[in-house]
Design brief:
The complex is a heterodimer of chains A (554) and B (206). With 554 residues, chain A is an all-alpha fold. Chain A has a domain of 272 residues. Chain A is 66% helix and 3% strand. In chain A, strand 1 and strand 2 form a beta hairpin. In chain A, helix 6 packs across helix 7, helix 10 packs across helix 12 and helix 14 packs across helix 15. Helices cover 47% and strands 8% of the residues of chain B. Chain B is built from 7 helices and 5 strands; from the N terminus they run ααββαβαααββα. Chain B has a 3-stranded antiparallel sheet with strand order 3-5-4. A two-stranded antiparallel ribbon of chain B has the order 1-2. In chain B, helix 5 packs across helix 6. Chain B is elongated and about 85 Å long. The chains are: A mainly alpha (554), B mainly alpha (206). At the A-B interface, helix 1, helix 2, helix 3, helix 6 and helix 7 of A face helix 1, strand 2, helix 3, strand 3 and helix 7 of B.
Chain lengths: 554, 206
Amino acid sequence: MNDTLAGWLQIIALVGALALTFRPLGDHMAHVLTSPRHWRVERLIYRVAGVHADADQQWSAYLRGVLAFAAVSVLFLYAFQRLQNHLLLSIGMKPVAPDLAFNTAASFVTNTNWQNYSGESTMGHLVQMAGLAVQNFVSAAVGIAVVAALIRGFTRKKTDRVGNFWADLTRIVLRVLLPISFVMAIVLVASGVIENFHGIQSITTIAGDHQSITGGPVASQEAIKELGTNGGGFYNANSAHPFENPNPFTNWLEIYLLLVIGFSLPRTFGTMVGDRRQGYAIVAVMALIWASSVAIVTANELHSVSSSVGHTAGGMMEGKEQRFGIWASALFAVSTTLTSCGAVNSFHDSYTPGGGGMTIFNMMLGEIAPGGTGSGLYGILILAVVAVFVAGLMVGRTPEYLGKKLGAREMKFASLYILTTPAIVLVGSGIAMALPGERAAMLNSGAHGFSEVLYAFTSAANNNGSAFAGLSADTVWYNTALGLAMIFGRFLPMVFVLALAGSLARQQPVPVTAGTLPTHRPQFVGLLAAVILIVVGLTYFPALALGPLAEGLH
Amino acid sequence: MAGSLARTARHHLAALRMLVVFTVITGLAYPLAVTGIAQLAFSHHANGSVIRDGGRPVASSLIGQKFNLPPPKGRTTGAPDPRWFQPRPSAGGYDPAKSGASNLGPNNAGLAKAVTDRRAAVAAFDGVPPSSVPADAITASGSGLDPDISPAYAYEQVNRVAKARAAPPSAVRKLVADHVQGRTLGFLGQEHVNVVALNRALTALK
């Protein structure tokens, strides 16, 4: 079989698998988020924690839950890393430095998983599994909880209640993330991923050299790392590392896992709002953007477009693994940057200007195709609100989406949401470029070096976590700046989403008339896709022109 | 004021208790259960696919190794050993404590020069024309631990290895052919040859 055919089949099999799980997983999540019944074990958890899981909360109370949980998580994780040398299974690792510990705590709590450390030489087993991996579960669940509150804003009327945060959080962990991760972790081990509690093993190699190999509970972390679109690798090389991703099958499975919840949530949305066609329209936009991006990155990498290194070497294999090759690497790169995952099986810094630039652009889109667990869906729903508003302006009617009027208050929240991330990215990159010491952290020079800084702030503010890893970002300045970018980039948008949810829930739905814009037809799919590209394009064009575009045209 | 402070404190205490509960479930019970099953049912894989030589571990078949001559005095790395199939370049020198890539950009002048130099060196080492050296032989992998090379690069090294070992080239070539792993299920990933496994098999070739 030739490369091209195999590459296509790989993509088709992925799309097929996602299509097969779209319905059952989407419906399951809708059930989990709407069922009035608690499981017995859930009741026990609520009792131990002392929370009222039956009390429907106002959006502000829901938000307080989200923020309180995040605050204690950051502090807990920070203390965990600082004290790791006193704990079990530290395998000789020293306490993590204060600035790095803050950055890492912010990173995992915000579902970003940006890593300024190398796992195999910084983190003990207990921090990895009982600190970092716990956030892989709960930060992913928080994202889904917030989108559930937003969906309830659309479905409920004349109420100020949007659900119960503690119940949403617990159910998503116990009924969605944990069972799937458990099964997939076993599948990963059966396919070659390691899962042990070995320390650092020294061996004498075949040729008489020495190697020290760090073991660890990798598979259990790998499964939730992808499923929860977290992306924080056990090892520095992340999913390029053979212990995390030993062969083409595990690679394919990891791509599937990091996409599956994001692509299934529109079904959950359609089911919950009582009109599945609304979900199909959203998933169509996601699929359109994802497929276009796969095509662009793959083509750029296959043909070494605008890369002197690629032409000299005869192929874009720098930073890529032989067992995956270009097709499976490009597919992973696109999927990880269009979700908030940020795991990598190849290193984007060495991609062609067009391919690497596209991974930055993917994140700039706000990670909505399909996006992170929950955050992707609320991101695209905000853009849908904007699209409906734009259409309303064209015909001079008060816009409405799913029966809810989009007035000044709603549009203010949507606008604030859209402005938050670009403000963090552009201001952050601007400041870094203005400081000589921070500029010097670039590995590559010129336009490509600027792309490294732009990538870092784009990745942090959008909670992606992948990197143009040449940038030496383990400095006090970058650890602090990127840590803050992650926290504001995660929680400010959540404030606006929940405020919007509260505002929508209070409304009495307006009846559908002949003048209502249908939001389930191809026309709306086109409109939404266009609005996304125009909004994002206009926001970031100058920055992209200085980085990847300048390099590509050089 | 005091009331709202107490409420906030209570709220955060509940959040902390919730976090502790999830730490026990997802941070302890879950990985321990997976490890238990993994160790019972898939212990070879779970422990890193270790290759042993008379009981002594000599490699993980997943982690690439260097196959160099002993370093000369005052140097830390030796030259490539002609008796072994050579792996891809590595940004971390095949040190598992330093996994990672070069992160050099697609138009980095230093990398372009390194690639040109490597092409010349590999061609001279293997006694082949520079144009026949494949891309994987002269570019560093993502992990720095890539155990695999392309079949093209493996076949290219056959004559040099056979000569250095005074073995018939046909036998070495057959060994390579036996070690070519096709795409998983016929269409996933890329064809590759595991250098660690291949060199291990080479030690048995007489």
